[in-house]
Specification:
Rossmann fold, 8-stranded mixed sheet, 8 strands, about 50% helix, binds NADP nicotinamide-adenine-dinucleotide phosphate
């Protein structure tokens, strides 16, 4: 009996030590955006700014004087986020505007409403994302949900926002991706089939969407050369948000012990939004506020092929709708 108790105590101590070391590692490696830099009157659009990493990014940029538009799909959640930021930051310049990334029509409405209210956008943060590997479903545009929300819609939104970014002195596009892009498998010539296929599960659909986002970010940066607009890709780390919620107690314990807080997870997006290096680096991969080398998405010909195929697929979907 006493042996069993000793074993249990040893296991408990090992888990606590591991948790402590993991927390310490997260604290030491998690980058921090410069706390003193202000971005007064910069106009920022953050998709999915009502929750998780997006909300923390919106809150922080409001504290630094930016005018932030929280673009999200649910009116109640959007208005609540706006209220919460106003409570935390006196004179916050924050507004919620509806945007549903499951719908190209909603993107068009958002851009037209935004353009009638604001003359330019300085920073576009494509932050919203979902992970539905176990539940493949089609959107109203007849596209697989994760692929549309994480890739096709940011592509289309950005395309429509470019004229407004061009009116900024230093336009920045920040695409929130994931290190899981490394596990993505993309065959560009079969892209149309991939987004049509909702038969069963696809454990890779999230990674695939983040690889597509990475390839597009690289090509976007090339296309924007000489315009003064930069486009970069961010991996926020493993972050305790709704995205990584699960029913598994062990997984939730792991997340509780090892994951970053949403504030910590927002640091790299904030760093790119406020820091001058965001002006000179384009097409970069950022993690913990560091510009790291790309491991995938390096084939320029394939990135270009993806761009053309994506434009074709989106145009087809929009034509079918009308
Ligand atoms: N958490 C992590 O460990 C982790 C790791 C790597 C990368 N990321 C990336 O970080 C980004 C932010 O995720 P998070 O962790 O902060 O997750 P989150 O708390 O679940 O937030 C996701 C946001 O996206 C919005 N969204 C989802 N579908 C949408 C749609 N159709 N139209 C408009 N908005 C939509 C959500 O709105 P609702 O509130 O209405 O659902 C929410 O505001 C994502 O791109 C994610 O892939 C996260």
């Amino acid at each position: 009996m006493s042996f069993l108790i000793s074993v249990l105590l040893a296991v408990l101590c090992a888990v606590l030590l591991w948790a402590l070391l993991t927390k310490l590692f997260t604290l030491l490696t998690c980058g921090h955006a410069d706390l003193t830099r202000r971005v007064d009157d910069k106009i920022v659009v953050i998709t999915g700014g009502n929750a998780g990493i997006g909300f923390e990014t919106a809150l922080d940029l409001c504290k630094r004087g930016a005018c932030v538009v929280i673009a999200c799909r649910d009116v109640k959640r959007g208005e609540k986020a706006e209220r919460d930021i106003r409570k935390a930051v006196s004179n916050a310049k924050v507004n919620f505007m509806p945007l549903d990334l499951f719908s190209f029509k909603s993107i068009e409405r958002f851009v037209s409403a935004f353009a009638s209210r604001y003359a330019k956008v300085d920073i576009l943060i494509n932050n919203a994302g979902i992970m539905q590997n176990d539940k493949l479903e089609l959107t109203g545009d007849m596209m697989e949900q994760t692929l549309q929300a994480n890739y096709f819609s940011p592509f289309y939104l950005t395309k429509l926002m470019i004229p407004l970014l061009e009116k900024s002195q230093q336009g920045r596009i920040i695409n929130v991706g994931s290190m899981l892009y490394l596990a993505g498998k993309v065959n560009v010539s079969k892209l149309a089939d991939l987004q049509n296929d909702i038969s069963g599960k696809n454990p890779d659909v999230y990674s695939d969407s983040k690889l597509l986002l990475a390839m597009w970010t690289r090509q976007l940066a090339r296309r924007l050369t000489g315009t003064g607009i930069t486009a970069n890709y961010v991996h926020p780390g493993l972050v305790k948000t709704k995205l990584v919620n699960s029913n598994s107690i062990i997984w939730n314990l792991f997340i509780w012990l090892a994951a970053k807080s949403p504030y910590q997870g927002a640091q790299t997006s904030i760093h790119l939004a406020i820091h001058p290096t965001g002006l000179s680096v384009s097409g970069g991969y950022f993690q913990d506020c560091w510009n790291l080398p790309w491991i995938r998405a390096r084939d320029q010909a394939q990135n270009l092929e993806l761009w053309n195929e994506t434009e074709r697929i989106i145009a087809d979907r929009i034509a079918e709708r009308s």
